[in-house]
Amino acid sequence: MPAMAYLRDEGVPELDFIGSVTLKADVKKVADTIKAKLGLEEGWAAKKRTWGDALSYLRDCVEAIDVVMVTNSVVGNNNRRRLSVEEFRGFVLCDKLAPLIFINGSDAKSAQVFTIFHELAHLWLGKSAIFDDKQVEEPTEAVEKFCNAVAAEATVPAAELKRIWPKRQDDDPYFSQFSRHFKVSPITIGRRLVELDLLTKKEFFDFYEAYKNVDKTLFVQENGGQPNFYYVQNNRVGKRFARAVASAAYEGKLSLSRCVPFDRIDVCDV
């Protein structure tokens, strides 16, 4: 049974936030609206111990508003064919019944947090898209610039950064203090500081050149152990989708013997 038909048969209402804003909307208001919809309180990321904790919590909040979240770092289940971060960080498919966000799991957890908010901004605009490094470094389209701005304000609110900036540590040249606080990458912090005139462009590029050569393990917090197969599969297909399949099978609307394996699912059919 096609996913859309199944959802309509179940009486699932359309999501009113899809396409609810335009490019003329105030960036801060959109960022605040998204976080309010997700139930994220001020300083939520700072209360999470690790980047992994923050990412997991954010994923759950996104799925709670009926957005399908899919994360994978490889092609299907083939660990030898990893998805390239250089090619894309994520993409979003807009639909009022079953919007879907795909995140490249090969990317750093701190980058994934930013990408999720970027893709959520796309949903609020009602525009599907793919998000790659070019859109991060030098976004050329108005939509991408808008989504980047929303993601920046959602992950590193201007008011909060300005409030804690005076508490910076002089011996922390890579902004790891703020990276841990907001659970984003040092590069995101640096860009945000330039946007808010707290750092000059020269200071940023000096930092950027030095950061590119530093051992990135300094900024990685291990979560301990490897997740089990079923936890990984939940992330790969999305909890909302998995629940829908299980429910349909239990009700006899879907034959388990004829289900397509999760590693062969075409995202366009979700």
What does this structure look like?
This protein is 47% helix and 9% strand. It has 270 residues and is α+β, with helices and mostly antiparallel strands. The protein has helices spanning 3-9, 27-38, 51-64, 109-125, 133-137, 142-155, 158-164, 176-182, 186-195, 201-212, 229-237, 239-250; strands at 68-72, 74-75, 78-82, 90-93, 100-104, 129-131. Helix 2 packs across helix 6 (142-155), helix 4 crosses helix 6 (142-155) and helix 9 (186-195) packs antiparallel against helix 10. It folds into 2 domains: 3-155 and 225-269, no CATH class; 156-222. Residues 74-86, 131-137 and 221-270 have low confidence and may be disordered. Strands 1-5-4-6 form a 4-stranded mixed beta sheet. A two-stranded antiparallel sheet has the order 2-3.
Amount of beta strand: 5-15%
The end-to-end distance, rounded to whole angstroms, is: 11 Å
**Order of strands in the sheet with most strands:** 1-5-4-6
Q: Tally the structural domains.
A: 2
Uncertain segments are 74-86, 131-137, 221-270
Give the number of DSSP strands.
6
- Please state the average pLDDT score: 75
Helix content: 40-55%
Label the structural class.
alpha+beta
Order of helices and strands: HHHEEEEEHEHHHHHHHH
Morphology call: globular
What's the tally of helices? 12
Radius of gyration: 19 Å
The biggest sheet, with number of strands, parallel, antiparallel or mixed sense and barrel status, is: 4 strands, mixed
